[in-house]
Design brief:
Low-confidence stretches: 21-28
Radius of gyration: 29 Å
Helix content: under 10%
Mean pLDDT: 82
Length: about 150
Amino acid sequence: MNIYITVEGPVYITAAPGTGTPGLNATLGAVALKKDAKMPQEGSMTTEQRIQAAIDPKTQAGNPATLDGPPTWTVESGDCTVDPIDDKHAWINAGAALGDSVVVVKADADLGSGVTELADSFLIHVNHAGAADLGASLGTPELKPTP
């Protein structure tokens, strides 16, 4: 039987006189982070640019971790496109439309037959490509007109 208790503040358990110390035999289940607790990575670029996205899987202790197969990269919203490079990198390419794109990368952390999906996201702001060069040039020298 499982009993789930939500408590705010300290909890005190007192044994009746002469009964000794009570034993709860309590255990905790697997600890999991709240779903979607991480903020997305965020970047900006113009409609003429692309940006490289990367993942670096780690264990809870911060050690390098192996994934079960390559990750999947998808554009959830916006006009950007994604070109995977290898199992840890992808190009996020700006589209022609201005605005935000959300790119999600998902991977299987379970190295067995099951699936333990990990996901992270990138929020990409795409801005107008403004002038970066005036394109100044000189023509061929010629004689001045005579007065």
